[in-house]
Structures are given as structure tokens and as C-alpha cells.
């Protein structure tokens, strides 16, 4: 039996799911081991404007906490993000380092 694929979803995936019920297979589907980036959690908390939204987010975060699946950013991740942010401004396409560096 193959190990489940590790998945780290970006904020926009959660927002699409919460607001329009898009991509439920990514957020709730079987067959993958989902992790929550602490940065994504921060962004979702910043955008949770209603009481019901904050409660729903709190329930979801509790699940990730209970499973020890919240991924804090490391210094290396921030360094890669800064490099990529600068590269985007220079139209440099050499930013593949961010793609799964947090789930390896």
C-alpha cells in the first residue's frame, strides 16, 4: 500500500472552498495527508470577517493542531519566498524551490 501524498494547500484553495464550495476534493477528499501552513492560517484568520467564519476556521485549525499538521515557516522558506518575490519583479522564472519544500 502506497503512503498517502502529502499536500499543503494555499490560501486561495481554502477561500474558494469556503466561499463557493469549489474544489472540495482538495480540501476534504481522501487519499492525501493534508497539512496547514501557519502562514495560510494567518491569512485565513485575517480574512475571517464573520462570527460563523471565525468559528468554522477555528474548528478546522483545531483538527490540524490535534493531528500535529501545522507547518511553521522556516528561515529557508522565508529566504526562498524573498528570492522569488524579487524574481517575479525581474521576470525571472527560476523559482521552483518553493514548490514542496515545506512538505519534504
Tell me what the structure shows.
By secondary structure, the chain is mostly helical. A 3-stranded parallel β-sheet has the order 1-2-3. The chain has 2 domains: 1-72, no CATH class; 73-104, no CATH class. The chain has helices spanning 11-20, 24-28, 38-47, 51-66, 75-90; strands at residues 5-8, 32-37, 70-71. The chain contains 5 helices and 3 strands, in the order E-H-H-E-H-H-E-H.
Question: Summarize this, please?
Answer:
With 104 residues, this protein is mainly α. The chain has 5 helices and 3 strands; from the N terminus they run βααβααβα. The radius of gyration is 15 Å and the shape is globular.
What secondary-structure arrangement, pairings included, does this model have?
Blueprint: E1 5-8, H1 11-20, H2 24-28, E2 32-37, H3 38-47, H4 51-66, E3 70-71, H5 75-90
Parallel strand pairs: 1-2, 2-3
Amino acid at each position: 500500500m502506497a503512503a498517502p501524498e502529502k499536500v499543503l494547500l494555499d490560501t486561495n484553495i481554502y477561500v474558494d472552498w469556503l466561499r463557493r464550495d469549489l474544489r472540495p476534493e482538495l480540501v476534504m477528499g481522501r487519499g492525501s495527508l493534508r497539512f496547514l501552513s501557519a502562514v495560510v492560517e494567518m491569512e485565513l484568520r485575517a480574512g475571517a470577517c464573520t462570527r460563523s467564519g471565525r468559528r468554522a476556521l477555528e474548528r478546522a485549525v483545531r483538527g490540524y493542531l490535534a493531528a500535529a499538521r501545522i507547518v511553521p515557516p522556516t528561515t529557508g522558506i522565508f529566504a526562498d519566498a524573498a528570492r522569488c518575490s524579487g524574481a517575479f519583479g525581474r521576470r525571472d522564472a527560476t523559482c521552483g524551490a518553493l514548490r514542496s519544500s515545506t512538505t519534504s
